[in-house]
Design a protein that fits this description.
Strand order of the largest sheet: 2-1-3
Oligomer: single chain
Structural class: alpha+beta
Number of helices: 16
Number of domains: 3
Protein name: Type I-E CRISPR-associated protein Cse1/CasA
Strand content: 15-25%
Low-confidence stretches: 132-136, 333-337
Radius of gyration: 26 Å
Largest sheet: 3 strands, antiparallel
Helix content: 25-40%
Pfam families: CRISPR_Cse1
InterPro entries: CRISPR-assoc_prot_Cse1 (IPR013381)
């Protein structure tokens, strides 16, 4: 049996006309100009499949993509990926999902000591292990078609959970039939970020970082998994393993797991899955371009090494625009940069790459793209997936460049405006709760959520209009007025709903002496904080009103 992923349809896409389809690897590259984006079973699957396509493109274009001049030729060409068909034909056997010797992203003959075969729940991430009650697949997955199995196979290498797994024969780290935790698959550690263009062709090109840019590590022996020897049970013991990943091709196809699918003529019905190649997270910023990085002082103390950077994960409750500083802020980032200490965080190399393209005028400064974010929140010692996050923010690429740092800083400052205004709103909710004699923390959290939700759409619209030629001072003043008006509207709702007890108030000790905290005083405090937070936010009428 054979299932050749180069010609068999398995990658779900949305076309530019809004229709959807499923394409093979060959067709994805051939039709990339009329494909809008990948639409997998989960957002994280989209990210994993995109990285697979990027590895194919990098390897197929080897020698044709060295610097920004080469990239510009590809960007302007109608046949950007004309080298891909011959490349896929050359490596066709390694893309066979069912190959008897080297099946795609699997280890042939992988087995447990008791020859057990496990349910497909272990690779299908939308069926939580042991908690299937809210799944569309309740109670589990009995069988998958080959196309879907291939997608989940790629996803498992990117996002599989940690925890105790079944040991496999030949794995030197397995003990008593068990493989002990080594952490989630590589992409599961990341706050994933990808640039999305108007078509999949643009998306792939925007994320193709030229090796000579100096932004990512690019060794001469960089190669994807299908150009390396097939894996064996356990971690790779090859002499060069300590020097890997050798570049993005290696990293985007990193074999975090050892997997073998069990199938018959009707599809896949079981799986064996255990740990594969582990990868230390710290200081990989020159290897992994698709995440921001945060400095970890606890790790610095533990390892006695400075600096130590770890991937900066996405928080499920935090929209992408609220993390704007990690994307568009100037290079002089971090609270301690002025003292010649390492920055508190680093933006993704991908953002630096896009900034380089606009600074060198390889793309127009007004070009609009979407920065998409992908992440996983693991629970219970990272052994289960609790939540998957996905978001995006549209902006002009000029915000990422070095030459227009003040525009980028304006976008960051606008987020700070929103943060300060929402804090004032949350404090109002807390004060009203104290005045009424109820718990403050729940009221504060609810008000904070309401504030950010109300500002979400307005910020996205505002930042999409921030580009070269716009007066950034006027643009920010417009934003402050929007925030002021929006948050004042929410405050009026809180005051109207506060009730009689808050109107009457309660005694409260302050640093200036005892007061009676009631809704009127809470409102006064709120307005004072909001005016300080948004000095240019009031309209003339609002400033004149009592």
């Amino acid at each position: 049996m054979s299932y050749d992923l180069t010609v068999r349809p398995w990658i779900p896409v949305q076309f530019t006309d809004g229709t959807e389809g499923v394409l093979s690897l060959l067709d994805v590259f051939a039709q990339a100009g009329r494909v809008r984006r990948i639409v997998g079973d989960l957002p994280t699957q989209d990210f994993a499949l995109l990285r697979l396509l990027l590895a194919v493109a990098h390897d197929a274009l080897d020698g044709r993509l060295d610097d920004t001049d080469d990239w510009t030729e590809l960007w302007e060409s109608e046949e950007s990926f004309d080298a891909v068909p011959a490349y896929l034909e050359q490596h066709r056997d390694r893309f066979d999902l069912l190959h008897p010797v080297h099946p795609f992203f699997q280890v042939a003959g992988l087995r447990t000591g008791k020859n057990e075969v496990f349910a497909l729940d272990r690779v299908v991430a939308d069926v939580p292990n042991g908690d299937p009650f809210f799944s569309m697949r309740r109670p589990g997955v009995a069988r998958l078609g080959f196309a879907e199995a291939a997608r989940w196979l790629v996803h498992a290498h990117a996002y599989d959970t940690s925890g105790i797994k079944t040991g496999t024969v030949g794995d030197p780290d397995a003990k008593n039939g068990k493989a002990y935790p080594k952490g989630p698959s590589w992409a599961g550690n990341l706050g994933g970020i990808a640039a999305e263009g108007h078509t999949l062709r643009e998306t792939m090109l925007l994320n193709l970082i030229a090796p000579d840019s100096g932004l990512v590590h690019a060794a001469k022996d960089d190669a994807p998994a299908w150009r390396r020897p097939s894996g064996t049970p356990g971690e790779n013991s090859a002499p060069d393993f300590a020097d890997r990943p050798s570049g993005v091709r290696d990293l985007y196809t990193w074999q975090s797991r050892r997997i073998r699918l069990h199938y018959d003529s009707d599809g896949v019905h079981g799986v064996v899955l255990s740990y594969g190649d582990s990868l230390v997270q710290r200081n990989r910023q020159k290897y992994e371009p698709m995440t921001a990085w945060r400095r970890s002082e606890p790790q610095e103390k533990k390892l006695r090494e400075v600096p130590v950077y770890l991937p900066r994960e996405h928080k499920p409750e935090r929209a992408a625009w609220r993390g704007m500083e990690a994307l568009v802020a100037p290079v002089r980032q971090g609270e301690k940069a002025d003292r010649n200490e390492p920055a508190g965080f680093l933006r993704p190399a991908l953002a630096d790459w896009l900034g380089l393209l606009v600074d060198e005028e390889r793309i127009e400064p007004g070009t609009r793209l979407r920065l998409r974010t992908y992440g996983v929140l693991y629970g219970t010692q990272q052994s289960v997936i609790d939540e998957i996050t996905s978001d995006g923010v549209d902006l002009a690429v000029v915000l990422l460049g070095e030459q227009d740092q003040l525009l980028g800083q304006t976008a960051v400052n606008a987020v700070a405006d929103a943060d300060a205004a929402v804090r004032a709103l949350a404090d109002l909710a807390s004060d009203l709760a104290h005045a009424a004699g109820t718990e403050a923390d729940p009221a504060k959290k609810t008000a904070r959520d309401l504030g950010y939700a109300a500002l979400d759409g307005p910020y996205r619209l505002w930042v999409s209009g921030l580009t070269r030629g716009v007066d950034r001072h006027e643009h920010r003043e417009t934003w402050q007025k929007t925030v002021f008006s929006t948050v004042c509207g929410l405050a009026r709702r809180l005051l109207d709903e506060a009730g009689e007890a808050a109107f009457t108030g309660r005694p409260l000790k302050t640093s200036k002496g005892p007061v009676v905290l009631d809704s009127a005083l809470a409102d006064l405090w709120f307005r004072s904080k909001l005016r300080r937070a948004l000095p240019n936010g009031q309209t003339r009428n609002e400033a004149a009103s009592p």
